[in-house]
Amino acid sequence: MYLKRVRRLIAALAVSGFLNIILLTSIFYSMVKERSPALYCEQRPTLRSKKQIPLATSENGNRTILHLQTLSYENLIPHLNSTTPVENGYCERDLALSCLVEFHHFDLDRALLGSASRIQKRMITYGRRKDGSPAMITIYPALSEASFTSIITFANNEKWPQTAKGLFHILKQKKEFYESSLLDAFYLTPTFAAIDALFRRSESSLDKNEIVTMLLEGDWQMLFNFAKQQRLYGDISDTRRQHILLEYIAKNSPSAAALLLKMDAPFATKKLDDQHVLSILTLLTEKTKESEKFALDLLTSPRSDAVWKMAATRLYSYAGEEIPGNLHYQLALQRFAPAAADSKIKILEKSPVIVMTEKNKNILQKPPEKPLTALKIVPKKAQQSDRLYIVQEGDTLWKVSRKFNIDIAYLRRYNKLTSDTLKPNSAIRVPTTN
What we know:
With 434 residues, the protein is mostly helical.
């Protein structure tokens, strides 16, 4: 009985092992059958007599870009004809075009104007900048032969093939010695058109050259941001124009200060705070009708001492006179606005108004005549008059009283002062006896 069980177990194990072998064999066969056959390479002698065209140049893309980056605009144009492969499916002309757009502001959109194909863009890294950040450049894949023909034709025939940014930088480099055609090209850019529309809303006659001069006193990013906002929102209000002018004034633009006075003089004189007014006065170094009136209006306005002093300084400069070392407000007012100075002095010296009452009515009436008696000589009472004293730096009421030998309490009461502290460049009345 025991032997029968052993035989059955051995038979079962044998059957199981046989089935496992069959299963493993079938799996191995299926794997071998699905694997692709090995490549057969026939060894043949090298053809040394025929020059082989390399699939890629020995220089990689980074080195090629770094080399093309050093070339001038004129020297880059011939590389647009080079179809030498570099890497990743790009030829040398693709990288040359990228360098033209990136480093010379070549206007690719204008060059391919009218092309039906969409311009594709890819960003690649070609090294590191001095600050350690990656150096990126945009490349343009899948450009056809016809596209490169249009690009080369545009580059050779167009006098100013740059974008608005490129034209802006050229104008900044040339300063006042730029050609009229360069200005005309910049006038036609959408960037300038957005700013020009804002300034054309004013009733003041304005030359485009005045706007360009102001824009060149700022930077490109500033202009780009303003133009982008104008295209998005279309705000052509006076407030928007004033905001742009004040932004350029903050960048120390004399042209912006002059344009603000030319277009919005009442706003500049009445609405701006002292900080903005001082900035404008600092920039107005050249005498014009608007700048002289602006300084004079500020001198006669109820502004702070700093504004008065700066306005007086500008007026002395416009008049070609030496600025006094110890500048006094009253003296400057007497020099440039005598009518206003006289008015202020009269206000200071104005006599009190006598209001008629029952008490003083009897006093003012002529007393009854008395019979003549012997004449008695009475000393004539001294008449009191005033003189104006301009307070100096460091002066106090006590110092002034000692200087003129007047009782300090009387001097305080005479000028109706509440403290002994005096404001520099202000005027106080000093009583004198005739």
